[in-house]
Amino acid sequence: MKRRDTLSLILGAALATWLAAPGAAWATAGRWFSPIRRNRLRPPGAVAEAQFLARCIRCGRCLEVCPYHAIVMLDIRHALHAGTPLIAVENIPCYLCMKCVAVCPTGSLRPIGQKETRMGLAVIDHYSCLAWRGDTLCRTCYDKCPFANVAIRLEQLRPVIDEGACVGCGLCVNACPITVAEDGGKAINIEPVYAGNAA
Amino acid sequence: MNQSRREFIKKAAALSAASCVGIQLPFVLSNAEAADQGASWHRGSCRLCGVGCRLELGVKNGQPIALRGVPEARTNFGYLCMKGMNFWKCMRHPDRLTKPLYRAKKTDKFQEISWEKAIDIAADKFAEAHKSGGGAAVAYYGSGQALTEETYLFQKIMRGGLQSNNVEGNPRLCMASAVGGYQTSFGADEPIGGYADIEKAHCFFIIGSNTAEAHPVLFRRIMRRKLDNPDTVKVINVDPRISQTSRIADKHLQFKPGTDLTLLNGMAHVICQEKLYDEEFISKYAAFHKGTEKVSLAEYRAQLAAYTPEEVARVCGGGFTPDDVRVVARWFAQSKGTVSLWTMGLNQRKQGVFANNLVHNLHILTGQLLKDGADSLSLTGQPNACGGVREAGGLCHILPGHRPIENDKMRGQVEAAWGLPAGRIPNGGGLHTMAMFQALNEGKIKALWINCTNPAQSLPNLSKYEAGFKREDNFIVCTDIFPTLTTQCANLVLPTAFHFEKTGVYGCTERRSQLTKKAIDAPGQAKPEVWIAREWAKKLAEKLADPLIAQCVKAFDGLEEGYALPKAIWDEYSQKITAGRDSDLRGATYAVLETMADGAQWPAPTEAHAKTGGTVKKFVKGRDPLADAATTNGDSPYQFYTPGHDDHKLWIWLRDQAQPEEIPDAEYPFYLSTGRIVDHWHTMTMTGRIPELLRANPYAYVEINPKDAGRMGIGPGDMIEVKSRRGRNLLPAKVIDGPLEGMVFVYWHDQHPDRLINKVTIDAVDAASKEPEFKICAAQIKRVSGPQALTPYLV
To answer: Is the ipTM reported for this complex over the cut 0.90?
Structure first.
């Protein structure tokens, strides 16, 4: 691909994005706001979101080292946040290999262990969870949890989250058989409740 | 993956473009919502495991849209597991086989052909094979998932038509040892009680079974019982691996694989030592046996003397204390009712029958049998292993109706029922599964029909048997709904109707026969197996100019295959063949079964008895109509009327510890065991095509004890080579406190050549049951690399 072609593609894509969401595009697409929300998380050990933008140098090392290709780099639609790492857990969750925290050169991802990781907190939607609804004997999230019986335990055959132990890796979200929303929302989701905390 | 600035910009641009396309994610319709949309609901049994859950298929515009449980059913009370609730999603999967496929050579590409031509080719090849080598050159390998009508008809054509006892099925790989155990200990196959005992039990003895994952709905009943009575109900789990089942256990005993025979003898030792046995029960109903001789209680106790709790704890690897053995034995013996449950952990063993005997021993010794809440209950893994294969003659050594093949009188009864001359069915000569595939290797079998099963994935020591599948001088027919590793080895692939696309009976673990009626049409040209078998037999009769082959299907000629044909087959089987046998199903007619939420447990000689649900406890007067009529045990409340034991007693067997085929050594230092995971079933041909189940468990992994992992520098997700003397696998590691130190565990659903664990397992078989030892072999493990992103693989 020539440089010219590349640039015209970018222009075309930008134009298409603009046309696809007329008017409200700038305000709603979150170009200037943090991309962190439900099931869209920073890798393990991330500093508070308010500082992340300033610290991360977009070197891409975390994404290079991730063996599962769980970490993706945000594209130019995210403007200021472009180039920063993100994990979309319903696509590929974090398997907690902790390789990314070891290579981060800026400390945006602090070198922490599996258990200290707090990417977010799993929250079960009792109205769509099969086990809570009583539809069927599903315990997929419990089975997939790397801290089974600690972070997720079964009470009367229904999954319950321990807030003190859940690391927010998203393995449960990824495995959950129920998709309730068009954005990929599941019956169990990771809320980035720690993203606002000070480093 | 270093990327230049230019590449980054390119990627970013491409992503921006993709985002404009707008991808819609699937939305799962709940059952309640489906019901509101005008679906019609059709009752049947679950297609998957052996629990026999009853469910209803929601159909709208001729298409399946949902499944829901039947609350009145005595098997599941309306509960379903994830597999059971979702299997409708594979019914209209684009991978479904819809046209007959043929290739002359196995290296050719498949060509679509007509049914007429397909049946002609199948008949031609079987006729050719039969002319060259008689009954020994042809074989049928069936399945515990085939309907009873299908297994019955195929074995009738094979035995009565082609005069071959080469009739086998995958239950040989799964519960043949349980059959051997029941026959040698109780003199009659299949459990005395059933699931109803769970709600009355006070002690559960779960050995060699991960019920929580393999039979989730049944496990719910056990768990409910335990959770409702946390102090009065004890759960004992005995397994080398800590599994989901262990979660509810009061005691989990982890032993070195293969030493459970010692543990079971140790429990018997404690029961004898502490006089916890039921003296009256033993004196009235039990006899002691060692090999071919009869022995006394004193001799039995003398043999057990070596199995002191201290010795047991030592032999079993020190995972528990001598006192644990004592406590467990006391709980077992002294509870108001003890139910033992086991599956492959005992069955898939070189000592499978012995292990089964030793569990039965404990029940007979303590009298934990024949009363409510007490049973020695072997669980089955397939929906119709009991009903179709064990009862309807699906194994080489048994004729339908629990008849041993070598008995002249029994063969005579079947020949008479089929309208065949005496002597038509050969006396034995059938090959058991592993011998059958060995014969295929050696070129002795020229034509093989594989129905509804996937031996190219499920046989142990696979690489050895690949040779036979690949030979060009044999002819393999496969009847299936999806492409499998086995259809890849076939010459002729015939597309069949799936569950709910045909009519027939499944018989679950607890002797219960349940009907599933056709609710929707099969896609494309797929046909029910009963139609295929009938047409094939008619053609065979022409080609071999043998009217007796035609006689086998004469009564079924011209019947409509969706309902009338299976009904006629069931009527012949239930009315003529099961009459006068312990598996009497004369009362369980289609008419009766259609009215029931679940089905009938045999013996069910009359319709009135079948309508009540049949016999909950075999051999018990007042509950079992055959016991009411029997006088084999005088006027006692229990009548062991079956002819298996000439003294009509329960036999306690003296069985010493015997070793598995392979024990870890310096070169292969690990025990390797295989098993199942909750979201998949067997070779994954169905569950792998259900996105919700596949995404939860996309590929197999090897479970490694954290201590071993630490010692060998293995981290979670690292790629591990698992190698035995027979083959190797490359799998990601799951470091978990599951398997015992020095043991690894792999689940066997994955179809990928690198993760096909049956390349590694051993093909040694139990001397009596001929069931292979999938559960124990020696292996070495080696870390190959760090984590790798893997993708699921389906043929």
So the answer is: no
